[in-house]
Amino acid sequence: MDQGKPTKKTDKRGRVGEREILEGDIVVTAVAERYAIGQMTADGDTQESLGSQPKLGEALERACALAAAKHRVFLFPSPDTRVYVRFVCPKVAT
Hints:
By secondary structure, this protein is mainly β. It contains 1 helix and 6 strands. A 6-stranded mixed beta sheet has the order 1-4-3-2-5-6, covered by helices on one side. The longest helix is centred in the middle third of the chain and has 12 residues, at 56-67. The radius of gyration is 12 Å and the shape is globular.
């Protein structure tokens, strides 16, 4: 999954949200004019970069596909914010 990209250090201390982000959870962060997608690593302080999307809807759709039923998706509206929001992925009828 790392595709040769280094992991990104994130500061989770002091972040406010409904529950702690756990290993494997997917995080979507607004960065510049794109939405970065990352997966929380085992140390709980870094994310493995999984790419980015130009539109929020596309980023959340990709994040939900990556999270599947095992993990949760969180949205950081800005890298400067201390608040995150859990995004509940829609269930897809099969």
